[in-house]
Design goal:
Strand order of the largest sheet: 3-4-14-9-10-13
Bound molecules: pyridoxal-5'-phosphate
CATH class of the largest domain: Alpha Beta
Distance between the termini: 47 Å
Radius of gyration: 19 Å
CATH architecture of the largest domain: 3-Layer(aba) Sandwich
Number of strands: 14
Helix content: 40-55%
Number of helices: 16
Shape: globular
Order of helices and strands: EEHHEHEHEHEHHEHEHHEHEHEEHEHHEH
Number of domains: 2
Length: about 400
């Protein structure tokens, strides 16, 4: 483990425990232009050294505690639990982090790595704008130049976050090709990185992309699960039966799953965006409906047609609207260690509304997918069981979308 919380099972950082470097089973790897290979191996070396360094750990720990506000609470949602009358529901409150989501855990960690790399310029992609805001925040804090690539469609539906990034001093580059969402923004950020790699670090926002990114992002997000595991043991004297999280690229989910990886009794459930229904073409249910392929430097499940052309993804939530997913989730699915289900836009909205009314918490639309799954899932649980649900972010950023659905 790299940070803060003392943990019984020390997480093994011996890079993937596999002889095929950068792979999780059949997934992962480094499918990038030759020009990026030196930067990826430099990043890997700097990361491996940094996490062993006491000064780096201390700096990260200090920022996690005093800047981000960690540890986040593991909150017993009593009224939500009573609503279903089944398993006890605990919410891991990542929505209470500075900037309102889990993304900042990774952005701050990678910005510190950029300092170590001696790179003053940062680029990043963003969908909903949360990773863009987190990156712009970390850059302001650590005196780095920041450029964020964002699809034109996302800029329109996430206006408050665009304004936020600009106020933090970031340059926001509008991406107008293709579907004008996260996939194109990511492609554009990778292209920009290729042309400026000597002085630029790319802060990837989810547990995907070429090795070592899935590993780096997981390690910076693993604080979520190590805190939750310890908090659960402390308060209830036992481990949870289930850990639930929404899946965009998979960083909040892998962040909360990782500490429980060796706890075979703990079931992992990831919730993908089912959009208008997985029987339609408008969804982002990569693990439920996709097939293995290569996108953005990594091999994973993808939404693609028979010719390997990437399909358009759809979700009410811009942060889930991505046709790929991280390689480790692809592997966890194949070995059966985690299960993945899809939750529709409507179910997510119902989840959002329920949490607002019974707990007074406005959840991010991404996180609302995990809440929305409870309607189906809770009847299968029993009252002596415990669920930890990762509340990955807060919903303020989604007000422009929500206002189209709720007519007050
Ligand atoms: C970005 C985002 C997600 C989806 O990304 P993951 O990498 O899958 O975690 C989920 N929730 C919130 C609040 C986000 O901002």
């Amino acid at each position: 483990m790299i940070v803060i919380i003392k943990q019984k099972n020390k997480v093994n950082l011996s890079l993937l425990n596999t002889n095929k470097k950068g792979y999780f089973g059949n997934f992962g790897g480094q499918f990038v232009p030759e020009t990026l290979m030196p930067a990826l191996s430099e990043l890997e070396t700097v990361f491996e050294n940094a996490i062993k360094e006491p000064e780096f750990q201390l700096e990260l720990k200090n920022l996690y505690q005093n800047y981000i506000g960690r540890p986040t609470p593991l909150y017993y949602a009593k009224r939500l639990t009573e609503y279903f009358g089944k398993a006890k529901i605990l919410l891991k409150r990542e929505d209470l982090n500075h900037t309102g989501a889990h993304k900042i855990n990774n952005a701050v960690g990678q910005a510190l790595l950029a300092k170590k790399l001696g790179k003053k310029n940062i680029i990043a992609e963003t969908g909903a704008g949360q990773h863009g805001v987190a990156t712009a925040t970390a850059c302001a804090l650590l005196d780095l130049n920041c450029t964020i690539y964002m699809g034109a469609k996302d800029m329109e539906r996430q206006k408050p976050n665009v304004f936020r990034m600009k106020m933090l001093g970031a340059n926001v580059q509008e991406v107008t090709n293709g579907e004008q969402t996260l996939k194109e923004a990511t492609s554009e950020a990778i292209r920009a990185w290729v042309s400026r790699v000597e002085n630029t670090h790319y802060i990837l926002g989810t547990a995907s992309g070429p090795h070592p990114y899935p590993l780096i992002v997981r390690e910076f997000q693993a604080i979520i699960g190590s805190e939750a595991r310890e908090q659960c043991l402390e308060s209830y004297n036992k481990l949870p039966n289930y850990v639930l999280a929404c899946i965009g690229g998979g960083s909040n989910a892998i962040g909360i799953f990782h500490a429980f990886k060796e706890d075979q009794s703990v079931k992992f459930i990831g919730l993908e965006a089912g959009g208008k229904g997985i029987e339609t073409t408008e969804h982002a249910a990569t693990l439920t409906k996709g097939s293995p392929g290569i996108l953005h430097g990594t091999k994973s499940y993808l939404l693609q047609d028979n010719f390997g052309r990437i399909k358009e993804a759809h979700s009410i939530s811009a942060g889930m609207d991505y046709p790929g997913v991280g390689p480790e989730h692809s592997h966890l699915k194949d070995i059966g260690r985690a299960e993945y289900f899809s939750v529709t836009d409507d179910e997510a909205l119902q989840g959002f509304q329920l949490l607002a009314r019974v707990e007074g918490i406005l959840a991010a639309l991404e996180s609302s997918h995990a809440i929305g799954y409870l309607f189906k899932f809770m009847p299968q649980t029993s009252s002596d069981e415990i669920i930890i649900l990762n509340l990955s972010g807060r919903g303020d950023k989604d007000i422009p979308i929500l206002s189209q659905y709720f007519d007050f």
